[in-house]
């Protein structure tokens, strides 16, 4: 009989060979430190008196760290999956557009700069990783940088997310009452390098399965991405490109961000 993937971990006692990562990409048995300085930004009063302060916190977090967290607040819980996912997606989009408004204000861009084509496409991705007999040999998700504009990550209580921070891999605490915001590579380009887009990966867990929800805002294929004119007029680090052009270069560079971005850099004097 076929073994359901969800029951796999009860039956499979060692990591199948085709899941084992090459030695230099494996996490090994290293004990990773917890990154305990992921900035937490409270969006309470972002429409009021705390706005300037919140924007400043977002800019500093994105320049110095990459990730940041915001506290989560839930509405009612509808019972049907389609409704739940529909409502979740609408709320996730509102949240990310609100975040982008704060970011555009912080970069000195006009309100609504990221609305429209730059954030046209929304992707919801649910990751479910079953327990793994030997987490040292493999990864739930290999190291990568999100190629889109901005990502909202909703973790569960099982650890797994790691960020490459201060020259080493570090665990991100699995908080269920806050959301992780990850600036994507397009935000790095539009902000002319002011925002960094952090490298991250996902470890597996030996006993528990892990489910996370990612919401990605993605530019439409033909929109031109470039350092914002009113922001980086004199010294744009990157030339303009369409998202389609970027994405094919990115996948053609084995999804290595620096290689892909290198193809769009202006010559420096
Ligand atoms: O599941 C996670 O914690 C991270 C997922 C992720 O990085 C992604 O989907 O791009
Ligand atoms: Fe990611």
Automatic annotation (TrEMBL):
Fe2OG dioxygenase domain sequence ranges: 120-219
Source organism of this protein record: Rehmannia glutinosa (Chinese foxglove)
Keyword field contains Kinase: no
Protein name per its UniProtKB record: Fe2OG dioxygenase domain-containing protein
Stored InterPro entries: IPNS-like_FE2OG_OXY, IPNS-like_sf, Oxoglu/Fe-dep_dioxygenase_dom, Plant_2OG-oxidoreductases
Family affiliation: Belongs to the iron/ascorbate-dependent oxidoreductase family.
Keywords: Iron, Metal-binding, Oxidoreductase
The UniProt record lists the keyword Kinase: no
Listed PANTHER family: OXOGLUTARATE/IRON-DEPENDENT DIOXYGENASE
């Amino acid at each position: 009989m076929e073994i359901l993937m969800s029951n796999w971990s009860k039956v499979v006692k060692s990591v199948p060979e085709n899941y084992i990562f090459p030695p230099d990409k494996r996490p090994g048995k290293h004990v990773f430190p917890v990154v305990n300085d992921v900035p937490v930004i409270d969006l309470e009063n972002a429409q009021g008196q705390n706005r300037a302060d919140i924007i400043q916190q977002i800019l500093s977090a994105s320049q110095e760290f990459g990730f940041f967290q915001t506290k989560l607040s839930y509405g009612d819980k509808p019972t049907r999956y389609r409704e739940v996912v529909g409502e979740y997606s609408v709320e996730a989009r509102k949240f990310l557009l609100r975040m982008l408004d704060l970011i555009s204000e912080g970069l000195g861009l006009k309100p609504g700069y990221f609305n429209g084509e730059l954030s046209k496409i929304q992707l919801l991705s649910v990751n479910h990783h079953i327990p793994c007999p030997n987490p040292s040999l493999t990864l739930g998700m290999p190291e990568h940088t999100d190629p889109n504009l901005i990502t909202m990550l909703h973790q569960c209580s099982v650890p797994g997310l790691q960020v490459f921070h201060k020259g080493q891999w570090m665990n991100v605490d699995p908080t269920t009452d806050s959301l992780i915001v990850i600036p994507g590579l397009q935000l790095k380009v539009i902000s002319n390098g002011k925002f960094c887009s952090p490298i991250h990966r996902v470890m597996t867990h030996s006993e528990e399965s892990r489910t996370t929800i990612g919401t990605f805002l993605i530019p439409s294929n033909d929109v031109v991405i470039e350092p914002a004119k009113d922001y980086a007029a004199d010294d744009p680090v990157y030339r303009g490109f369409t998202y389609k052009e970027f994405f094919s270069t990115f996948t053609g560079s084995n999804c290595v961000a620096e290689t892909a971005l290198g193809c769009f850099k202006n010559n420096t004097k």
